[in-house]
Hints:
Blueprint: E1 18-25, H1 30-41, E2 46-52, E3 57-62, H2 69-79, E4 82-86, E5 95-103, H3 108-119, E6 124-130, E7 135-141, H4 147-152, E8 158-164, H5 181-193
Antiparallel strand pairs: 1-3, 1-4, 2-3, 5-7, 5-8, 6-7
Helix pairs in contact: 1-2
Keywords: Copper, Metal-binding
Pfam families: HMA (PF00403)
Organism: Lithospermum erythrorhizon
Amino acid sequence: MPNYPKGIFYDQENNLQTSALFSVMGMTCSACAGSVEKAIKRLPGINEAVVDVLNNRAHVVFYPSFVNEETIRETIEDVGFEATLLEEDRNVNSTQVCRVRIKGMTCTSCSSTIESALKVIPGVQKAQVALATEVAEIHYDQKILNYKKILEKDTGFQAKLISTGEDQSKIQLKVDGITSEDSVRMIVNPLQELPGVEC
C-alpha cells in the first residue's frame, strides 16, 4: 500500500500514478540499492521503487499529487548517491506483461471466469488464460497497476507469478553445429517449454 500523508483522503479514481526513471551513480552493492529503495519508499505517495544496482537505475511509480520527481531525486542524493532524472522514460510505453501460473482449472468455463475477472481490474488492457498450459498472460499499464495487485485479485484459483516484463532480460547464445531446421527445432522447442522463457 502506498504511503500517504496523515490526514489526506486518498481518492483511487482521481489519483493516477506515474513513473520516473533515475540514473543513480555511486552504488556498488545490493546494500547500496537497498538503502536507496528504503529512502524512496519512506516518501508519501510512493507506490513502488525498484533499484537496479547493475544498471545504476531506479524506477519509481508514484502519485504526483503527493510527491514529485525533484523530491525523489533529492532523497536519493540525501542517501549519498548522485541522481539524475532520465527524461526519456516519459516517452516509454507503460504497458507491461506478466505471466501467471493458475492451478485448479478444470474446463473452459474456469478459464473464461478468470479472464473476465482479470479484465475488470483497473489498468488491465488484455488478459488471456490458456487452460491447457495453466498460464494467464496479462497486459497492464504499469502507471496504474503492478503485478502484485494482479496476484492479489481473488478469482477462487491459486495463482503464482511465472515472469513479468519488469524483470525480463535477454541473452544471446552462439550455438555451433547447427546443420538443419531440425537442429534449430531441437534447441528452440525445449527452451520454449521452460517457464518464463520466450524465444
